[in-house]
C-alpha cells in the first residue's frame, strides 16, 4: 500500500471513472479484475501507474484512475451502521469549531465516517476519543479508518 503517494500499488484503493462517468472504487489485489459490460480492467494494469492515469480495458473503454478523496471513500466504505454524510460532517465541524490541536469526544462511531473527518480536522496534534458500545461497529470503524489512513492514528482512542 502506497498511502496516497507515488504510483498505485497493491492494497491501494482506487476510484475508477468509466464510460458515462460511472464510478467504481476497488482495492487493488494481485490477480484482481474489474468486470463490467464494458470489458475487463486488470488490477495489474493499474499497479505502477501514477494517480490520474487513463487506462484502457479489454474492450477499449477508458477509465480514469484516481485516489479516492475522503468524501468518495466515506460514500463507498463498508458500513456497519449509518454514516454521517460529507455535507453533515462539514456542518458538525463548523458548528463545533473543531480545529487542529483540538481535543474531541465522539459518542458513537458508527462506521467511522465522522471519525475520519474529525481526525483530518484535528490533525496530528489533536486528540479524538471515541466511544462505541457495540463492538462490531467499533471494529468496522477501526477498519475503515485504517484503510483510508493506512494506520490507526496515535491521536485516536476508541
Verbal overview:
- The protein has 2 domains: 13-66, Vcp-like ATPase, Chain A, domain 2, CATH 3.10.330; 70-157, 3-Layer(aba) Sandwich (Rossmann fold).
- A 4-stranded antiparallel β-sheet has the order 2-1-6-5, with helices on one face.
- The model has no long low-confidence stretch (mean pLDDT 93).
- The protein has 5 helices and 9 strands.
- With 158 residues, it is of the alpha/beta class.
**CATH fold naming of the largest domain:** Rossmann fold
Sketch the topology as an H/E string, one letter per element: EEEEHEEHHEHEHE
Low-confidence stretches: none
| Secondary structure tally, helices | 5
The CATH class label of the largest domain is Alpha Beta
User: How is the biggest beta sheet arranged?
Assistant: 4 strands, antiparallel
Strand order in the largest sheet: 2-1-6-5
Q: By CATH's scheme, which homologous superfamily of the largest domain applies? A: Vaccinia Virus protein VP39
Any idea what the shape is?
elongated
- The Rg value, from CA coordinates, equals 17 Å
**What is the level-2 CATH architecture name of the largest domain?**
3-Layer(aba) Sandwich
Amino acid at each position: 500500500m502506497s498511502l496516497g503517494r507515488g504510483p498505485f500499488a497493491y492494497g491501494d484503493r482506487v476510484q475508477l471513472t468509466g464510460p458515462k462517468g460511472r464510478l467504481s472504487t476497488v482495492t487493488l489485489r494481485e490477480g484482481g479484475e474489474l468486470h463490467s459490460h464494458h470489458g475487463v480492467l486488470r488490477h495489474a494494469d493499474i499497479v505502477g501507474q501514477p494517480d490520474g492515469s487513463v487506462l484502457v480495458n479489454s474492450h477499449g473503454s477508458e477509465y480514469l484512475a484516481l485516489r479516492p478523496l475522503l468524501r468518495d471513500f466515506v460514500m463507498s466504505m463498508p458500513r456497519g451502521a449509518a454514516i454521517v454524510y460529507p455535507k453533515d460532517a462539514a456542518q458538525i465541524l463548523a458548528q463545533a469549531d473543531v480545529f487542529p490541536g483540538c481535543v474531541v469526544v465522539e459518542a458513537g462511531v458508527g462506521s467511522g465516517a465522522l471519525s475520519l473527518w474529525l481526525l483530518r480536522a484535528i490533525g496530528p496534534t489533536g486528540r479524538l476519543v471515541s466511544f462505541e458500545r457495540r463492538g462490531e461497529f467499533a471494529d468496522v470503524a477501526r477498519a475503515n479508518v485504517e484503510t483510508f489512513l493506512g494506520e490507526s492514528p496515535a491521536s485516536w482512542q476508541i
